[in-house]
Structures are given as structure tokens and as C-alpha cells.
Design brief:
about 190 residues, globular, 6 helices
């Protein structure tokens, strides 16, 4: 009976060993996946105000180019306020994304990947920027009727950009702190 018991114990141990090996393999995979996940978060840049301001300034540059060009196009074609504003907003998004695409493509990334990065990095920032700066222009008395030759046009536009920058910077800081927004772009600059 002792020999049978040893055999049963050994049999149980042998049957258990592959199970233990399987569990060990699953635990290793889970740990590796968790480590990789944790590793991903470890590389998210610190969300500093300077980084957020830089991201917002980048966004503001594209938005300003698009806004002014849209106003010039609308004025040149004699369009009303609505088509001019829609054109300006569309061009703001176009130039905002283009500036990011230019930087990401320098990292030898294919166009499709670079476009995805630009969309992920800039959409919320540009949307907030456009909502605020166009909102300011809409509520500013006579600003919508000002032409490119009027001081009111340029003053209201400059003030709207300052307000939009002030509102958008904390949004960008929040996004960067979560590994989103311009944090995505920074992965391609190293």
C-alpha cells in the first residue's frame, strides 16, 4: 500500500506540475502585460504648465493662421459672417493639424499614422480654442461687422486669442497629464 500511495502522490504531483506550469505561464504573461501597461504610463510626460502653454501656443499658431486666412478669403469674396466664420474655423483646424503633421512626419512616420497622431493630439485643443475665440468675437459688440482694415477687427481678434489661450492651456495640461493630447506627439519627437 505504501508503494501505491507513493505512486498516487507522484501521479498527483505529475498531473499537478503541468497545471502549475500553466498557471506560472499565465501569471508571467499577466505580469508582463501589467508591466508593459505600467511602463506605458511611466513614459507619459509630466504635465507641467510650461508644456501645456507650449502645446497651446502651437495650437494657437495654427488657429491664428486659419482664422486670419479665413477672414481674408471671406472678405475677398464678399461673403457674409456665417460662411466666413465657417471657412475660418475649417482653416484653423486644417492649419492646426498641418503643423502637427509636419512635426510627426519628420520622425519618419507614415502619413496615416501621423494623421491619427495629429487628430488625437489636436482635436480637443483646437475645438476649445475655436469655441472660445469665435465665442468672444460673436459677443463683442460690432466685432462681427468689423473689416480687415478696422482696428476693432484686429483688437477683438487679439483679445479673443488671449482669452482662448488662457482657457485652453488648462485643458491641454489635463490632457497631457493623462498621456493624451500633445503627450501623444511628444512620443514622436524623441
Amino acid at each position: 500500500m505504501g508503494a501505491v500511495m507513493q505512486h498516487e502522490t507522484h501521479g498527483a504531483h505529475s498531473a499537478h506540475a503541468p497545471h502549475s506550469a500553466h498557471e506560472a505561464h499565465e501569471a508571467h504573461e499577466a505580469l508582463s502585460a501589467h508591466s508593459a501597461h505600467g511602463h506605458h504610463h511611466a513614459h507619459a510626460p509630466a504635465a507641467t504648465w510650461a508644456m501645456a502653454a507650449q502645446a497651446t501656443l502651437h495650437c494657437l499658431t495654427g488657429c491664428a493662421i486659419g482664422e486670419v486666412l479665413g477672414m481674408v478669403v471671406g472678405t475677398a469674396f464678399g461673403w457674409g459672417n456665417l460662411p466666413t466664420m465657417i471657412t475660418a474655423i475649417a482653416l484653423a483646424f486644417f492649419f492646426g493639424y498641418s503643423l502637427t503633421l509636419r512635426g510627426v512626419l519628420k520622425a519618419d512616420v507614415d502619413f496615416r499614422t501621423a494623421l491619427r497622431v495629429a487628430l488625437a493630439a489636436d482635436t480637443l485643443s483646437i475645438a476649445v480654442m475655436e469655441l472660445i475665440d469665435n465665442g468672444v468675437i460673436l459677443v463683442w459688440p460690432s466685432a462681427m461687422d468689423a473689416t480687415l482694415g478696422d482696428a476693432l477687427f484686429w483688437i477683438s481678434l487679439a483679445v479673443s486669442f488671449v482669452i482662448a489661450f488662457t482657457v485652453t492651456t488648462p485643458v491641454n495640461k489635463w490632457m497631457i497629464g493623462r498621456g493624451k493630447g500633445h503627450a501623444v506627439v511628444h512620443r514622436y519627437h524623441h
